Amino acid sequence: MNIQIFGTKKCFDTKKAERFFKERNIKFQFIDLNEKKNYSSKVSV
Fold it and tell me: Residue limits of the Glutaredoxin domain (predicted)?
């Protein structure tokens, strides 16, 4: 299973999700929406 977190480095919820997976030693990939402009148009909140 590949877990991907889409967010920004300063976002509280993104940090919370990263902490959740790190505490449980679960690998994940972080995708920074500030760096990947083409993703931000595909993701909505």
Answer: 3-40
